[in-house]
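Hi! If you just cloned this repository, the fastest way to understand the data is to look at a raw example. We've pasted two of them here, unedited. The first protein comes first, obviously.
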Amino acid sequence: MNNVAINSLMDPNFKRWNKPVVRQVFSEDLAFKILNIPLFEQVQQDTFIWKAEKNERYSVRSAYRLCVSEVVDLSHLHKPGFWNGIWKLKTLQKVKNLIWRMCRGCLPTRVRLLDKGVHCPTQCVSCYSNHEDLAHIFFECPFAVQVWSMAGLWREVQDAVAASPSAIEAIFALLQSLSDTLSQRLAAIFWNLWKHKNMKIWEDITETCAIVVERA
């Protein structure tokens, strides 16, 4: 039935499906689904409604999110953690992004780069320890410890690290336990410890702990 128009699929006078036409045009399973869509007599004019947006208007971004969530299985990418604590920080977006990368385990520390096949030294640029990973850069390096102490956060950081099985869980624990003001200070220190490392590597600039804290 190539000449069937859309409006012939229903009887507009009685707000009901034209069952013979629907069953003739569509396959049995699809016709069954169509005929089970309710038609409300009080609705006189159809309107477009897009369920993926609160304003019910279509957008490519929401369509992409919907396809990803309903079509693609991304359950293996979901990691537990206090993610809202990162995005609610009252700080620059680049700082939030850094902490997100830290907690996703994708920050390019030297140990991680080596694991990914990038040939590079694994020494810490501040203390020359031979294992520059996430925990070392931000919590274990003597330079970082001194920065946290000067910033007045070492006791909180030390307790979180001692009570957590990993550096990532220690970060989440700190974000959950610290006040808004201290969380902002925590985030600023994270950013400036990472900046200190990169300035040493790429610009050969050596900073003191006081400079890092002052910039934070």
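Ok, and the second one:
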Amino acid sequence: MKSDGSPKLFGVCFAKNEEDIITDSVSHAAKFCDKVFIVDNASTDRTWEIVRGLDLNNLVTVCSKDFVFRDYLRLRFMETRKEELGLNNWWYIFDADEFLLDNPFDAIAQAEGEDADCIAVSVINFLLTKEEVRNAEESGRQETWRDRKYYVLYESGPVKFFKNTKYVDYGICDSIPLGLTKECSLRLPLKHYPHRSVDQLAKRVHTRYGNPEFESEYRRGTDLEHYVVDQTTIPELRCCEEERGLDSKGDFGRILPRIGESVRDRANAVTIRTLHRLWLLSALYAFYRRYAAWCQNVDIKNEPNFEKTS
């Protein structure tokens, strides 16, 4: 998928208890990434064993550590590899249950042409329905992520790609780095499979419930009935069957605000580049790191040490 002369692309994935899908998602990302880094959050299933056994030349299994997951940990890891990636190359942040639909280098080329330094995605969120659960129970068949056919154009579109420029700071308590100036006008469609079977759903809720990072998603408690949907009551639910296919056309909402309003883009770029020339940008970033850490009760001096183990 990668064309000659395109920039390098490094993928980063943090995973925990994703044994049923990790092989497919990592292998998919490895098709277009120069390197794929995997950090395991002390999985209690076979996730780490499976990842370490994958025969992929561009896969780097970093470590398996027990830590309370926070989105900013990915940035803290990427900071340790930013010199290896090099300036003006790109990062791809992905989860173990995500698959890109389109060639990311087409979007990166468009971003470069627009002088943009980040690319967001349009999330196609696949759900587990009561009908599917009932059918699986009646048939006795083990369900997988490939069996999911009901989806919504989810109200989210986070930045998943960003450029490693001299203005970027891999700040604490943020899901994307500080210093991004412009979002590409093109968004990449991405398939997301958070709930794939009853067994996997139970494990996922158990893993994430009580973690503040997932409070909005799993505030409904540990009763699985809250997460299995009734397809007859969701008007925006679509069905992906062989005769219909997947339709990703439509309006996607955003939880995260767009960076890409033209006036705001110009203001961001001018401000960041001016502060950089005045040697004030690093001081601003240092102040913000301490402020953000204080707001979220994070000890900057006690961050995870990502050690390469293979």
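That's it. A detail worth noticing about the second one: The chain has one domain: 9-295.
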